[in-house]
Amino acid sequence: MASNPVWVAAALMVVAGFSSFAAGEKAVPCYFIFGDSLADNGNNNWLQTVAKVDYSPYGVDFRRGATGRFTNGRNIVDFFAEYLGFENYIPPFATATIIDTLSGLNYGSGSAGILDETGAQLGQRIPLDVQLDNHLISVSRLALLLGAGGAYTRLGQCLYTLGLGNNDFLNNYFRPEFYPSSRIYTVEQFAVVLANRYKEQLQRLYVAGARKIGVFALGQIGCVPFAIRRYGTNGSASGCAEALNDAAVLFNVQLKSAIDQLQATLPGAQFVYIGSGSDMLMTVRRKGLKALEVLDSPCCTVEAESGQCVPDQPSCPDRSRYVFWDWFHPTEALNSLTAAAAFEAVRPIVAHSSSVGERSMIRLAAAVQAS
């Protein structure tokens, strides 16, 4: 397949941008993460839930093994931490010390959503409202360490990213056997309800001192193996469950509008809508990147009920070829490409970025050029 010169040029320009930054310097003093299983790095390990993965083969390519990350290696926010120049990955709130708070914490929770009830059929989870409650605990700890004024100053310098909404569709709206939302709202109405709730939560984060805030758009949720198997493709050209993808588009439109409103009305705020990277899965499917050629099959043996890997079973030997690790979650290979593209949206609101990010951007450029 012929390469797309626009994609190649854009990727190479990003590589050039990364290489101009000084290595070993943090772009921000701290990084706080809110999200679902795409961000969770161990918070769910302590919960009574189906949605936890503190066992092999998860983490087979991660230096500390199975930590609770829902993939074989690093997730997207791990790559962000590298790009920002952190020596260590951001620790989960569940096991963090008060000193850890100085560099930021990860509040992400598998099966969590914007709405409190989302994911309830899977067991305990930490919805966004509770993640924000946990962040207020972190703010109080920072005040103990730095004083109220010092904490407020530091919080305004940190980066915050949020990535939720996937489960509000996959484990709420499109699961009528568990939730009434699809009988109460049309999908258009639900997207508005969801975005309005998210807007209120983002305002709450701003009141707690956050100023540099990146919000991930939803990706192609209809292209995850679970969605394809459960809902079918109805002969769609994409090979995906287009009803779910259409729902994600509706939500993203509302989310972008909400973020624009917050940016216009909250003094000193730097909100960023992270849309770049959300289409990486479709890009891989349409362009047929040679580095990622297994599009619909998971890399591990999957439990039919949970869609997660069967404990202690071997995974596929060449994980760099697979888009999906299990029925829901991408491999480190796709995470690296998504993170590299998504980080471009965030770079303008951070002081500078480590040249560590150059590696993933080189990979992005090479993968696109080879396609």
Automatic annotation (TrEMBL):
Primary subcellular site in the record, as a coarse category: secreted
Compartments reported by the entry: Secreted
InterPro entries: GDSL (IPR001087), GDSL_esterase/lipase (IPR051238), SGNH_hydro_sf (IPR036514), SGNH_plant_lipase-like (IPR035669)
Signal peptide: 1-24
Matches recorded under Gene3D superfamilies: SGNH hydrolase
Similarity section: Belongs to the 'GDSL' lipolytic enzyme family.
Molecular function via GO: hydrolase activity, acting on ester bonds
Superkingdom of origin: Eukaryota
Aminoacyl-tRNA synthetase in keyword set: no
Pfam families: Lipase_GDSL (PF00657)
This protein's name: GDSL esterase/lipase
A GO cellular-component term linked to this record: extracellular region
Organism of provenance: Linum tenue
GO biological process: lipid catabolic process
Keywords linked to the UniProt accession: Hydrolase, Lipid degradation, Lipid metabolism, Secreted, Signal
